[in-house]
Amino acid sequence: VEPELYRRASFTSAYNVSYHHHHPQNLQYTFDTDVLTQEQRVAYEENGDEFEHICTRKANVPGLVVMKDVTIAKSEFVEGEKAVTKLQDFQEDPELFRYCTLPQILKYVECFTGPNIMAMHTMLINKPPDTGKKTSRHPMHQDLHYFPFRPADRIVCSWTAMEKVHRENGCLVVLPGSHRGTLQEHDYPEWEGGVNKMYHGVRNYDPGHPRVHLEMEKGDTVFFHPLLIHGSGMNQTEGFRKAISCHYASSDCYYIDVKGTTQENIGNEVKELASRKYGVDDTVSFQDTWALRGRLVKGDRTSL
Questions:
Q1: How far apart are CA 256 and CA 274, in angstroms?
Q2: What would the pLDDT profile of 10-66 be if each residue is shown by its tens digit?
Q3: Residue 129, SS3 per DSSP
Q4: Burial of 256 (0-12, 13-18, 19+ CB in 10 A)
Q5: CB neighbours of 178 closer than 8 A, spacing ≥ 6?
Q6: Using one digit for the tens of pLDDT, what is the confidence trace for 84-121?
Q7: CB 260 within 8 A of CB 128
Q8: What is d(CA 117, CA 290) in angstroms, rounded to the nearest whole number?
């Protein structure tokens, strides 16, 4: 990372991270390679995310899994991008999936997953201008809530801004260090304006925990841990806040049964959605829905 970019993008200095208290053998979330500096490894260990700058370009997106804002969906039909909040699972689109295979991305992903890398979840995010109901917010959550595979430390998200992202258009908000906790119980928050489908939030977290708004330039990328508590604010502008992301996991990861856990609610919701959309029966498990989406991008597919 260029020193000036790292100074601009990093938020660790605001929390007085004491690098001299850490030693390589204590770093559990990253691998010792020649890509990340010791300071960058400590930043990820302490906070749960890390910036890197890449070059990316805007892409025309075919309608794959289209998600709409709940308030727009309930009002008169609006054509075009104003109705769309996300396009999920673009792994079948060769042009968009190129993002997941970029060497500039994968060389950093490997620091967190190891050499056998699966692309597990892809999204093109199009946060629309808020309708006045505050539904363009994304509740504070942990991505691991959605994933029936482990270990968490071998999963990482790469999230790239496709245009300037700032507080006014709803940048990411993170709770640094929260990735060192456990997976919390999630459900739909009781918001007056309503909540978008699948937008579960952490039920209980410390509202006094220091938070950081990740303001990013076009092409900036943040890598973050799946237990990091994060969300995003309202888009209070007239434009759209576009980003592209991919969740990666080591192919050495393994699937777990979420029945009887805090993840059972999202597991049932995903199965119900798959049943309606694709006509699959109850024999298809939550784990199966993920196994079908995963794509090997580097190394060997050993387990997932």
A1: 19
A2: 433 233 333 334 454 578 899 988 888 888 888 888 887 654 432 233 444 433 555
A3: coil
A4: middle
A5: 48, 142, 205, 209, 227, 228, 229
A6: 666 777 787 787 889 999 999 999 999 999 999 999 99
A7: no
A8: 15
What single letter denotes the amino acid at residue 142? Q
Query: Which phi and psi (to 5°) does residue 296 adopt?
Result: -75, 130
Q: Is beta strand 65-68 parallel, antiparallel or unpaired with respect to 230-232?
A: unpaired
Q: Tell me how far apart the alpha carbons of residues 80 and 177 are, in angstroms, rounded to a whole number.
A: 39
| Side-chain-facing half-sphere of 283: CA atoms under 13 Å | 0
Pairing of strands 230-232, 220-224: unpaired
Domain boundaries, the chain: 38-298
Beta bridge partners of 295: 119
Cis before residue 210, ω within 30 degrees of 0?
no
Neighbours of 2 (CB within 10 A): 10
Output the pTM of the full model.
0.79
Task: Give, rounded to a whole angstrom, the gap between the first and last alpha carbons of the chain.
Answer: 31
For 141, 142, 178, 227, 271, the CA distances from 294, given in Å and listed in that order, are 22, 20, 27, 20, 17
- One-letter amino acid of 63: G
Nearest to 219 by CA among 162, 288, 277, 135: 162
Three-state SS at 224? strand
Radius of gyration (Cα) for the chain, nearest Å? 19
Alpha-carbon separation of residue 124 from 20, 65, 69, 70, 161 (angstroms): 39, 10, 14, 18, 10
* DSSP 3-state of 172: strand
Which region, left, alpha or beta, applies to residue 91 given φ > 0 means left and ψ of -120 to 50 means alpha? alpha
CA atoms of 254 and 293, how far apart (whole Å): 15
CATH number of 38-298: 2.60.120.620
Q: What single-letter DSSP state applies at residue 165?
A: B
CB 247 within 8 A of CB 156: yes
> Helix (H, G, I), strand (E, B), or coil: what is residue 2?
coil
